[in-house]
Amino acid sequence: MKNFSPKLKRLNLFLVLLLHVASCSNSIQNQPATAGGFQNIENALKDQFGKGAYYTDLTVTYNKSIGNIVGVTVTEIPESLKMGQWNLTQGNWQQNSDIIIEVPVGTKASDFMFQLGDTISLSKLGALVEQSIKKLKDEKQFENLTLSTARVFYPDNGDISKAEYFVNLQPENGGTTFRFRYSLNGNLISMNY
């Protein structure tokens, strides 16, 4: 029996690690549309692509039957001019396409991309989702609102002063979409409902 003990220990360790990885991946699809939930999504992005990754597009879409879907256009090396479009659905990362970008002569590719951190933050975006839901509850007495889409909008020209957060909400059973636009510092730019 002693001969099997190291094998059993390795098998147990492997199973524990497998369950941990599965629960972490699964947990992203079930993260709430809150500052904390979106911070967990940001952490998953940093784990997948690195803390220094550069993005041109980042969207979190909620689907009632499968949970959160995270879509990004990302690169770890901006100077390569190569980016990938990726989706995280039901705990699985899948690359949809490769993209080759062009930048004006005399500029750096990173000038047209953003990183996650202090200036652009998914926890801030999650807090804005919470704020938008509260606003609709307080002003319009809407209940049971769910996230439809939350997105970081980053302009093609790389002008970070024009970057925005978009939040789209819907009643739990579908119907009207309520649209909010916020500046990076969280000021409401417009709402449409």
Question: How would you describe what is shown here?
Answer:
The protein has 193 residues and is of the alpha+beta class. It has one domain. It contains three helices and eight strands. It has helices at residues 5-29, 35-49, 122-140, and strands at 54-63, 67-75, 82-89, 92-100, 145-153, 164-171, 178-183, 188-192. It has an eight-stranded antiparallel sheet, with helices on one face. A hairpin with a 3-residue loop joins strand 1 (54-63) and strand 2 (67-75). Helix 2 (35-49) runs antiparallel to helix 3. The longest helix is centred in the N-terminal third of the chain and has 25 residues, at 5-29. It is globular.
Shape: globular
Range of strand content:
25-35%
Number of strands: 8
Order of strands across the main sheet: 4-3-2-1-5-6-7-8
Domains, number:
1
Main sheet? 8 strands, antiparallel
Oligomer state equals single chain
Distinct helical segment count = 3
The helix fraction, in percent, is 25-40%
- Termini separation: 69 Å
Q: pLDDT under 50 segments (min length 5)?
A: 11-26
What's the SSE blueprint?
Elements: H1 5-29, H2 35-49, E1 54-63, E2 67-75, E3 82-89, E4 92-100, H3 122-140, E5 145-153, E6 164-171, E7 178-183, E8 188-192
Antiparallel strand pairs: 1-2, 1-5, 2-3, 3-4, 5-6, 6-7, 7-8
Helix pairs in contact: 2-3
